[in-house]
Amino acid sequence: MRSTRAASAIERLNNRTESREYSMLRTSDERFILTRRVAGQPLEKLNEAMELDDFVTFVNAQGPQKAKRVSKLDVQFEKNMRNKKE
User: What superkingdom does the record give (predicted)?
Assistant: First the structure.
């Protein structure tokens, strides 16, 4: 099913935000639209219809971003790489 990647992107976006206000619409020509519903206001379209890959990229860029986890080994590796270049 083509919309699984898009639905997963919406789920990740809703998990990053405090309220679950984002959803998507799928058009008859298999394009996707990101929507936001706020209580007391009409449905807001946040983009024009997009192809799947473009839509997933767009949704992933929305909302707050999670910081990448960095282990002690990663920090040490980066430090060693910087020292090696000098």
Answer: Bacteria
